[in-house]
Amino acid sequence: MTVDAVYLLQLTLNGITLGLIYALIAVGLSLIFGVMEIINFAHGELLMLGAYAMTFALPVMGLLYWPSLAVAILAIMLVGFVIYEVLLARLKPDEFERSILITLGLSIIIIHVMQYFFTATPRMVDTQYGFEGVSIGSIRITWTRIIGALAAAAAFGGLYHVLRHTQFGRAMRAIAQNREAALMVGIRPRVVARNAVVLAAGLCGLAGAAISPIQLVTPYMGQFLIFKAFALVIIGGLGNIPGAIVAAIALGLIESWIGGFYEIIWQEAAVFVIMIAILFVRPDGLFKRGGMRVG
């Protein structure tokens, strides 16, 4: 194996781990859109709160990764529950513009509250693993990246099981596919929407907690990621969960490859150039849109 091939494989592994974390955010957006037909522009701030929750949980848990991860996820699920009950429960399916204004306003409030209390100074997160990792020849990947990727993959497996094989998941898919028919058989949209928001918040909490040992934690980190996630949802097909996952992993790979061979500024432009190109060719995205498709 040549040095160039080793370097490319290293970039590929890094890209897959990053793509799986992107997928957690994009899938959460797809869940909320599928059930409520709104785009939650405060979704990135849930990721940011998950990262901060990890920074506070780790010292309490003695830098132990797994208990801190669980605390962060549960904390953001609780935040998602509060956001739904206080704000989103009052939205109707045809109030798309109102939902944009409310969630954008919430996003700005959360950012500035966090900046007021914790300043804009970036925080570095350390875990029990530090910078340790697995080395195979010249290829090295840290444990935090490996565990983050495995946790994301496990979350997608659990989500697939929930949506396909539980009453909880079937109710969400029924609302997404045909709201009127779901109402006729006694499904309560408010309960289903609340469950979807809490589940999406949990995925965001996992994403924030997983990314916190990899990237610097700041109040604005969610802003940089939410627009990418929104683009991924469009590329994958609005409401199509497998499409969002495939698009996210592809973006992680593309960003890693571009960052490895070209100036890093091109990483940020890549997803939007791809989105525009795809929408010219396939206006509904790469995969079939709507209905909260899971396969």
Automatic annotation (TrEMBL):
It comes from Reyranella soli. This is Branched-chain amino acid ABC transporter permease. Pfam families: BPD_transp_2. CDD domains: TM_PBP1_LivH_like. GO terms for biological process: amino acid transport. The keyword Membrane applies. It is found in: Cell membrane. Belongs to the binding-protein-dependent transport system permease family. LivHM subfamily. Its main location: membrane. GO terms for molecular function: transmembrane transporter activity. InterPro entries: ABC_transp_permease, BCAA_transport_permease. The keyword Transmembrane helix applies. Keywords: Amino-acid transport, Cell membrane, Membrane, Transmembrane, Transmembrane helix, Transport. GO terms for cellular component: plasma membrane. It is a multi-pass membrane protein. The chain crosses the membrane at residues 20-39, 46-65, 71-88, 100-118, 138-163, 196-217, 229-254, 261-281. Signal peptide: none annotated.
